[in-house]
Structure formats: C-alpha cells, structure tokens
Amino acid sequence: MNTLSIALGTSLATALLACLAGLVMPVKWRTRLAGVLLGLSGAAGVLVGALAVTGMVWRAELPTLLPLAGVSLAADPLSGWFLVIIGAVTAAAGVYAIGYAGRTSHGPGSRTAMAVVPLFTAAMLLVPLAASVTTFLLFWELMAVTSLILVMTEHRHHKAVRPAAIWYAAMTQAGFVTVLIGLSWLAAATGTQAFDGIREAAVSIRPFAAGTIFLLCLLGFASKAGAVPLHPWLPRAHAEAPSHVSALMSAAMVKLGVYGVLRLGFDLLGGGLRWWWLAVAALGALSAVYGIVQAVVATDLKRLLAFSTSENIGLILLGVGFAGMLARSGQPAIGAVAMAAALLHTANHAGFKTLLFFGAGSVQRATGTRDLDKLGGLSHRMRVTTALVAAGALAAAALPPGNGFISEWLLLQALLHQTPNAGTMLAIAAPIGVAVVALTAGVGVAAFVKMVGTGFLARPRSDAAAQAAESPPSMLTAMTGAAAVCAVLAVVPAVTAPALARVINSLQISQTPLSEGLLDLRLSGISSHIAPLWIAVGIIAATTAAAVLARVLGKARRRAIAWDCGDGPLTARMEHTATSYAEPLQRVFDNILEPVADVDVTHSVESQYVIASIQYRQQIPDRIENRIYRPLVAAVQKLGAAAKRLAPGVMHRYLAYMLTALIVVLVAGAIR
Amino acid sequence: MSAWIAAAGQALLIALLAPIVTGVTRAVRARLEGRAGGRIAQPWRDIRKLLRKPPTSPEGAGVFFSAAPVVLMSTSLLIAATVPFVSTAGIAGSADLIVVVGLLLLGTVALALAGLDTGTAFGGMGSSREMTIAALVEPTLLLAVFALSTRVGTTNLGVIVAAGASDPAAVFTPASLLAFAALAIATLAETARIPVDNPSTHLELTMVHEAMILEYSGRDLALVEWASAMRLAILLGLLANLFAPWGVATGTTWTAVVIAAAVLTVKMCGLATLLAAAEVYAAKLRLFRVPELLAGSFAMALLAVLTSYILA
Amino acid sequence: MSAQISSQLLNVACGLFLLTAVGVLWRRQVSALITLLTVQGVALAAIAVILAEQHRSAEAATIAIGVGLLKAVVIPWMLRRVHQQLPDARETRPLVNVSTSLLAAAGLTLLAYSAARPLVALAPTASAKATPVGIAVILIGFFLAATRQRAISQIIGLLLVDNGIAAVAFLATGGVPLIVELGVSVDLALAVLVLQILTSHLHTAFGPTDLDELRELHD
Q1: Scanning A216, A346, A404, B224, which has its CA 20 to 30 A from the CA of B212?
Q2: Sequence-ordered alpha helix ranges (H) in A152-206
Q3: pLDDT band at residue A42, thresholds of 50, 70 and 90?
Q4: B30: domain range?
C-alpha cells in the first residue's frame, strides 16, 4: 500500500460518492455536492498522475473483480502524464458544473447527468492504468458508454442531440470493434494478455501481423481521437453535449486515442517500422489542415472549437508520427524533441480547450445561442469571461506568449533540424510537415480572431446577446484555474522537462529532449532556444510602459461616433458577421470546402429593374462526411433491408440457424 | 548591463529610423511619378503632430480597441530590440526567427481585433481581409525560415546572420535566392504594400490595412502609423541582414556598432528606394488574385527548402 | 576560378533555371513568358559553360555557346514573332488554376528530388546532385503543356521540357555529344517553326487559337 494506491483509492471513492450524491441528493444541493466531490476526485487523479510520472512503480492484480480474466492495473510515467491531464480537466469540470448546471432538475443538472459524469471521469482515469488487454477494453468501453449517455443529456431540449448521439454511438462502437480485433489478435499472437508479457513477446510477431494489428488499432484510436477522416462524430457530439462534458471529451477523452497509439506503437510493439509512423503523420497532417479549414468557416461556436480539436489532434499525431520516423532513422535525439512537442501539446491543448469550452458554455448559458452570427457585444456585459476566452484564444492560435506557441515551436524545431541525409521519406515529409504546421497556424489565427472578434466584441447582433449577464463565480473560478495552468505552461514550460524525459524514456526513445534550465528552453541536439518568460515579460512590460507613457504624457481619450459615411446611425446589421468574416478565406479554400450557396432575388412589382429583396443562404457541408459516410450509411441500410428476408418469422428457420451455428463452431473446433 | 543598453539602443535606432524609411519610399515614389512630394522627414512631423492630439474611441468600442495600438507598438519594439540589426552579440541578436514571425502576427491580430471592436462595416471588412492575407503569408514565412535555418542548423537569428557575415559567399546560394524572393513577397503582404494593398488609398472598397484602422485618431493613430513604419523597417532590415549581411557588427565595440548602424541605415534606405521604384511600375492586385501571388511565394519557399537539400 | 566558386556559380545557375520554370507557371502574360524562357536559356547556357570550364573541354564549350545562342536568342526571337502575329496576349483560362498549378509544381519538384536520389547516389558530385532540377523542369514543362489552353503556352511547355532534358544531360554526364544536342535542338526549332506557320494560318482562318475550340474542327 503506497501513496499512489491511496491517492487512486481516494479519487475513485470520491468519484463514487459524487455519483451517489448526484443520484440521491435533492436538487438544491445536488450540483454543489457532486461538483465539489468531482473536483476532489480530479485533484486526487492529478496526484496519482504526478506520482506515476515521477517514476513511482505501482501495480495491482484484482483477479476476483472480473470473472475469467481479472483486472490488472499498473502505473508508469506514460500513464502518469495522461492521468495528470485527465485529473486536472476533471477537477476544473467539477467546479464549473456547480454554476453551469445550477439548481435545475433537467438538462446538465438532472439526476442522470450528475451521476454519470463521475463514472465517466473514473473510467477515463482507469484507461491509462490498464495493464492487460481485457482490462483496457473494459474501461475503454465503459468510457465510451458513459460519454454517450452524457452526450444525450439535453435530448429533450434540442432536436440535434439525437442524431449526434447516434453518430457518436455508431463511430465509437465501430472503433471499439477494430481495437478489439487488433488487441485480441495481439494477445493471440503473443500468447498472453498481460501487457508485460506482450512487451516481451512482441519481437517474435511477424512484421505483417504487427503492421496489421497496428493499423487496426490505429483506426479505432484515431476515431476516438477525432482524426480526419474518422471525425464526423466529433463536431456533433462536442457541440451538443453540455459544455463541461464537451470540455472533458475534447480535452481529456480524445487524448486517450493518442495514448492508445503511443502505448501500442512505442511500448507494446517496441517502436515498429517507419511506414507505420508515416501513416500516423499523414493522418495527422490531413486532420490538421482539414480541421482548421472547417473551423475557420464554422459559425457555431462549439462546432468551431470541435474542429479545432481535430486540428490539434492532427498536430499531436504529426509530432508522434515524426518522432517515430526520426527514431527509426537514427535520429533519436530529434525524435525525442518531436515527441516532447506532441506530449506537451496534449497538455497545452487540454488547458486551453477546457478554458474555451467552458467559455462557450458560459456564452450559451447567458445568451441561449452558440451562433456567432447572433452574438457580439459580450465584452461589455461579460468582461471576465471575455478576457479569459481571449487568453484561451491566444493560446489556441499558437501566438506568443501563449502556451500553444511553445509546443508548436518545439514541433517546428524537430521538423527543421532533421538531417535530410537520413532517407528520402524524411527529406520529403519534413518540408511538407512544416508547410502543414505553418498553414494550420496561419488559418488558426484567423479562426480564433473571428471567434473572439465576432462573438464577443462590438455591438450585440441579437437581443439575447444584448441582455447577457456574467456567469456565477464557480464557473469563473474554473475558467481562471484553467487559464492559470495555461499561463504556467506558457511561461515556464521547462517545469515539465523532467516529466517529459521520463515519459519519453518509457517510450523506448532513450534521449532527454529538453536540457536543464528553467527560464531558457534549450533543446538537446539543436542549438535553438527560447526564453518564454522573457518574451511574456517583454510584451507585458513594453505594453504597460507604452500605455502608461501615453496616458501620462498625452491627452485624455474622448468618445465619438464611428464613421458612418454620413448616413448613420450605424446598426448591428451593418457589422461584419462571422460568415462574412470568413468569406475571403472560404473563397481561397473553395476547392476543399465546396460550399453550397443559394441566392434568391425578388424583383419589385412595378419594375424588374428594382430589386425588392435579396436572400442569401450558404451551407458548408462536411465533404468527407458526404463523400464517404453517406454512401456507407446507405449501403448499410440496404443491407439491413435485405437481411430482413432472413427473418421471416418462422420458428423452424430460427432453430435451423442455431443448429447451423452450433455445427459450424463444433466443426471448426474439431478441425483445429 | 551593456547588453541591455545595446538592445534598447537598437530599438531606439529602429524607432527613429522607421518614419524616415517610410519617408524615403514616399519621396522616391513621388519623384518617379513626376510629383514634388513631401520631405523625407514628413512622416515624423505627422507623427509628432498626431501624438499631441487626444485619441477618440467610437461608441461601443471597448478595451480591445484602445489596447491595440499599444500592443502593436510593443511587439514592434520587442522585435527591434532583439533582432540582430546592428550587432549579433548579446540580447540584440538573441531572437528566434519563429518567435519574430509570431510577434509580428500578434501585432496583426491586435489590430484585426480592434477593427472588429469598432463595430463598423469598414473595420470588419479590413480586419477580415487582413487576417486572410496574414493566414496565407504565415506558411511562406515559416518555410523561408526553414530554408534559411538548414544552412546553419538553428533558427536563432544572431547565429544565422553571424554565419552569413563571416562567410558572405555562403549566403549566395540558390536556396537563399529563392528564400529571398519568397520573403520579399511576404514582406510586401505583411506591410500592406502594392501589389497586395495600396498604402496611399482611401477608397473604401479596395483598402485593407487602412480600413482596419479607419477609426483611429490622434495619439492612437500616431502609434499605429509609427508601429507600421517600424514593421516595414524591421522587415526590410531583416531582408538586408539575412541576404546581405555585410557590415553587421559581431561584437559590441563602439566603432563597430556605429559603422554597423550607418551601414544598416544605408541598406534600409536602399531597399526602401527599390521598393518604391517597384511600386511605381506595379498595380494593385484584385483581392481575390492575392492568394495566387501568395501561393507563388509559398511555392518558392518550398523550392528554397528543396534546393537547400539538392544544391547544398 | 576556384572550384568552390565555380560549384557555387553552378548552383546559382541551377536555382535560376528552376525559378524561371516556376515563373513560367505563375505568369499569364505571354510576353513575360517569353522573357522568362530567355532567362532560362541564359541559365542553361551558363550551366553548360561552367561545366565546360570544370572539365576544361573545348568541345563542351562550343556546345555551350551553341546552346546559348539557340535557347537564349533564336527560339525566343521566333516565339516573339509568333506572338506578334497573335493578338491574344494572355493565358486566360488555364485548365488548372494558377495557385493549384504552383503547388503542383512544388509537388513535382519533390517527386523529382525523390526519384533522382538513387541516380545522385551513383556519382555524388556537385553537378550530379543538381540533376533533380533538370528533372523537375521536365515535369513542370509537361504539366504546363498539359494544362494550358493557348497553343503558344503549350509550345513554351515543350520548350521547358527540352531545356530540362538538356540540363539533365549536362549535369548527369557532363555533356552530350555535340551532334545529338544540336540535332534535338534543331528538331525543336523546326517544330516551333511549323507550329508558327500552322498557328498563323489557323489564326487567319479561324481567329484565336484556343485548343479546346480547335477540337470542333475535328468533330
């Protein structure tokens, strides 16, 4: 019984208590108690992760908990890294839920929702601790089912929730099946289902089998991570779930897809071949570009954030892929930097995406809409929320001094400094990688400027936005906490260096990516370095100095009417909307997006030269969804209709099916 | 301590020079177009005059509007202090190229948000166009950084410029040639020059940068104009020192620094003259043809990376 | 001339050679295309001259001068004449838009680079290392010819292909036999001549030479 098991026990016990509180407490106390308990459970989860990441060895076998296979758990630095992320997001979500769910007995404050959230977070905490195939699959599935229930929370209030839940259910189950097949095959090929045994026996698997297992699991993990083209569930589920659940899903759950790839590829299968990682990097590049191009044209606040999740997962997978390729091409030092970039970006993304989804939740709670075209003017009525969301957007746009910038800088350093002599594959992939990162960075900035600028600034575009009120203190506290974590990661990212070194070491790349030194971020093997603290101090000091000088030496600011071409007064209808803001970029990416626009011109009755009204409608459908998934769904439906003939309602037929199945199984067993 | 003074001195030099550089482009352009034009120091006088006047905020605009000029100015000053314009030693040469790109973008973002914060149609339009251009310039900038950094194995600007200054022949490679072309186009786009934007237009439907800052007046406008001039000077100075790194001091001795400052002034004014001359012969592109230009610069930057592999 | 400076000059010439090919894809004005082609001819001649100097071969120097005359003087002059007879000065409707074709050019260069790596590995000299440039120009030339509508743009595409082949021959082998190179180039000059006559006749008969419209003659 060491500290880690006490912490884990505390975390799981408080989660259970939170679940009970959600079930039995009256409305008045439900969210407060459950939220506080959930926060404590998350904090204990952070402790578990921190202990694991410092190298504390811990394992537990609970053979009686599950019939036949039993449950086996173990902690190592890799699981610790993800536990810290999940725990921190959980803690913030617990606090946020107190104000967000309020004292209502429906929607996010309902009995089911409050009781299932702790189960969901507990399942997430247990996934990285799983140390055998069955345990992993059990918690993976538990996580999927609980998150599905949470996505459906508001199905009575919004029509779009049900299709979102169906998409999510179908895709997450399909992903589960591929992971199931892959891991079962792995267990069969190595003759054991414990991760320790697999690790030792993995060298003896034939390369073809190992490659197929990796690809099968990659499909499942990438669909959980929301990588394009396995993403269609993500913008739906993230948008329709309650905001603290969206934050939990986007900041924590999708990261477990990355965890799966790392655990399987680097740890269990021992690093694999170069083409595996090329496939991962290609998947990442596609997600990054497609995700951000869709995000920049999205007008639904949460849909924008969801597509940005796809983008960030893409960047993480790009880093992971390059780390694998570099490690396999004799450049482990640079590979370690790429891996550090990917890992640090998982933490950074968790930080700022939690903050942004919380912000989106506050906006939705205050105005009742997520449509950017109907928002605006919130900076006057929700000052704190606006400031916090702007800080999150700064980080998400990968601008200095945000924390997103640090991980992108690391990723670019790794891509820039591979030696081209190591092989054609890397020499071609690295410039393309840089181009992808750079394009996503550029378009990402436009997307987040649009989000903040049209969502929060200038005049309100609807009555609901004009009457918005600031969120309760618990929500603001949770957002401030997330922002503080982002700030620490932005200013002193080197605090993570020892942890990163241990995690990367456990991934069998024995290199230290970041050398010592808290203020100056130096890399091993690359002579570039930055001092994030000085950049932040420089910007803040110069800005403050300039502002103070201007205030002291210059004259006072005056209010005036904005230039209205002498035809005023200006109204909110004359402002640029989110749609029009993104229009030039949408034109640039016309070939990728293929928007559907529809213009109706109504002429005046007196003369056809006078126009009475013009109606413009535009839709930007998800092309990948239309091209790949619609035909697939249609085919499945056709198959289902055809399969009806197998079930004519005759009892004899059904009994005959059973007999056939039994005979087939027995014959197969006898032949073997 | 002397390192801090050197950095501050460099920032001051760029801040003082920047309006002069803008003045040179205007004067050259006027002469070539057969006009008398203003004096070279005219931008300085404009800024001085505007600085004395009170700023105005439109109704409904918030803190984003009033903060943007200051943020723009502070990012420009920070870059001016840390990029090796005069000397590659100490703080004055410690900047990382990617950080410089990021800081430039931060300034752009501050102005774009301010444009939206005014709540006018022009502000939104200018902001939208500016961000479109900025989003497409970013890949070119970073790929050009890639091409320049593979030669020396770091993105630290001081090291890159010092390597060029110690071996000027090594700068003259096809990779830097292509990277120069790409960066030059990116510079035009970043500083709102022809053919991407027309700095002297006030025609509502064609302007980009001017539309975004339409509501600024008095001290705010002075800061925006000054910072924009500094961005032009910074980018021209970067081009000059990356591709013609002669005369850059590698130490902090007084004589070397003074000579380097003089050489930098000459190089910047020379580039400004070239820029103005090129502008006279070019026309502004339609906004929707600008991506084509930027795709060209992107392709050149990618080729620069490749040729740095092929023709090493 | 020291070996280092000479190889650096060679690199710059190769860079210019590639840059002009991309420029041809970028610009629409036919007169600008011809200017770019002239510059490319000069770059090709420079490559040949530098290589001849490196090998100290008089024969190679003669080829270089011959190639220079043909590519930088004769062919551009003939193209200008064709151009003067045709008033349609711009490539108005390329089949693939300019941004995409520029990205495609970058992609083709990547392809050329990866395809030439085994070739370069055979003889890793400075000049052999530059062969991907020639291959890239061949690919870009084909791409241009395949995606442009005006007859004159297509001729320019084929000329790019020819320049690319010549560059590959120079860089990979240090020079082709004089007779072969001259034979090929003269062939091409003849082709340009024939096309010139053909297009001018077509022009007088049918107006502008948009190849898509010419297809109607066949139907």
Answers
A1: A404
A2: 161-190, 195-201
A3: very high
A4: 2-310
